[in-house]
Design brief:
The chain is α+β, with helices and mostly antiparallel strands. It has 9 helices and 9 strands. Helix content is 36%, strand content 12%.
Length: 280
């Protein structure tokens, strides 16, 4: 069993001078005012709408741990306190980020960059074109081949929020940025009644920002069908390599009081059900 994650008190960290503290549910901070200090995004939990307060916090941290196990480049997420209030900090994935909506609009001048929810023109074809010519941190893989891995990861952890600002490229390295923002994962919004059947809840997970609201596993398989067999085999092999002990160890790092016992059992079964759906 892995040691329990420490909860980092970031109350004394330096905030971004341009961030209106208290006006939003998230803001940038760093451990010191040193220009070389790393920026982290502090996120408060959703105040309403979840059956278990703080479920989006453990979902964010656990998803980043599952990404490490695959492995998949992802933003590091840690449990944190800001002036006594719980949250998570997510490490900035790099400078010079160009988000998906900006990339897509460069190929489609009519693309609705500011639209929330499903956007006309947001599909695998358009994303493949937008990522053409970009590299990835995975040796030998193109950006779209790596992005296919992100969609496979989404299907594994039940991330329903891969909208056009939840992925990006880095202008400096001309490569796909690590995946980030995974709070809408791992059945974080499942009620007690839904937690009775994790497999059924997992099956309902959809890629709600993509055309037709496809199941997460269906979208992943669509993307995997667009890449070489060797790339498809790479991602599915990594998913298959996760065993129950690894998943339980990842869940065990959540400190007591931050996640209920019912949620822990549910998440383990939820991931296992998604794993079977991806690699029957």
């Amino acid at each position: 069993m892995n040691p329990v994650e420490p909860v980092i008190d970031v109350s004394g960290w330096a905030p971004d001078d341009e961030e209106p503290l208290g006006a939003r549910d998230k803001f940038w901070i760093r451990e010191s005012t040193d220009p070389e200090a790393t920026w982290w995004l502090f996120k408060r939990p959703r105040a309403t709408g979840l059956p278990e307060l703080g479920a989006d916090l453990w979902a964010e941290v656990l998803a980043s741990r599952i990404a490490e196990l695959l492995p998949l480049p992802a933003a590091e997420a840690r449990f944190a306190l800001w002036q006594g209030r719980p949250g998570v900090i997510s490490k900035r994935v790099g400078d010079g980020l160009v988000h998906g909506n900006e990339l897509l609009s460069s190929h489609n001048p009519g693309y609705r960059t500011a639209q929330v929810g499903p956007v006309p023109g947001y599909d695998l074809d358009a994303i493949a074109v937008a990522l053409d010519g970009y590299a990835s941190s995975e040796p030998g893989l193109s950006a779209f081949e790596a992005f296919t891995g992100y969609l496979t990861f989404d299907a594994l952890v039940g991330n329903t929020d891969r909208h056009h600002e939840n992925w990006a490229v880095l202008t400096g390295s001309q490569s796909l940025a690590p995946t980030y923002d995974h709070g809408a994962s791992l059945g974080f919004n499942a009620t007690a009644a839904r937690r009775v059947d994790p497999a059924a809840f997992a099956e309902r997970g959809s890629a709600r920002h993509f055309p037709g609201d496809p199941r997460l596993s269906d979208l992943a398989h669509q993307a995997l069908g667009r890449v070489d067999d060797s790339v498809r085999a790479l991602w599915l092999k990594r998913v298959s390599a996760l065993d129950g002990g690894m998943i339980r160890d990842a869940i065990s790092v959540v400190p007591g009081g931050w996640m209920s016992d019912g949620a822990r059992t549910f998440v383990e079964d939820f991931i296992t059900a998604n794993q079977r759906r991806l690699t029957p």
